[in-house]
Amino acid sequence: MDRWRAALEPTRNCVRILATDPMNDEILKAELPPRPNHPRALVTLLEGLAMWAGEPITAAIFAGRQLTLHYDEALFGDPLLPVDSALVHFDLLGPPGRRRTLAGVGDFRQLRLAQRRAR
């Protein structure tokens, strides 16, 4: 299902937000202070995007190695786990690792490309 998506990256100095539409076009880019003044600030911002889109939005949180605070403190102001709402679903992504592939049985590059395009 094609929907708007958001990617969030909390760092020591800021929280970066990138939102894209179903065609993967960027519709919102923001660099916010590292901690919100209200624990529902991020959820409310993303709920507003979901209302604008007219459907729920998925927000992927990238918790990178450089983050000194726990990601939940950086994004929500309190050490709380992100709470999904009716309009926002959070996915937590760790630092990227090396992709595991299986050897043998031939060349599967075209199928991998097709999978990426289908997302």
Structural descriptors:
single chain; 119 residues; alpha/beta; five-stranded mixed sheet; 5 strands; 26% strand
Verbal overview:
The protein has 3 helices and 5 strands, in the order E-E-E-H-E-H-E-H. The chain is of the alpha/beta class and 119 residues long. The N and C termini lie close together (9 Å).
Per-chain topology:
Layout: E1 5-10, E2 15-20, E3 26-32, H1 41-53, E4 57-62, H2 71-76, E5 88-93, H3 109-118
Parallel strand pairs: 1-4, 4-5
Antiparallel strand pairs: 1-2, 2-3
Q: How are the strands of the largest sheet arranged?
A: 3-2-1-4-5
- Classify the beta-strand content into a percent band: 25-35%
Helix fraction, binned, reads 10-25%
How many angstroms does the end-to-end distance come to?
Answer: 9 Å
**Runs with pLDDT <50, length 5+?**
none
pLDDT averaged over residues: 78
- The number of helical elements comes to 3
Helices and strands, in order, run as EEEHEHEH
Largest sheet: 5 strands, mixed
The total of beta strands comes to 5
Determine Rg (CA atoms, Å). 16 Å
What structural class do you assign from the helix and strand content? alpha/beta
What's the overall geometry?
A: globular
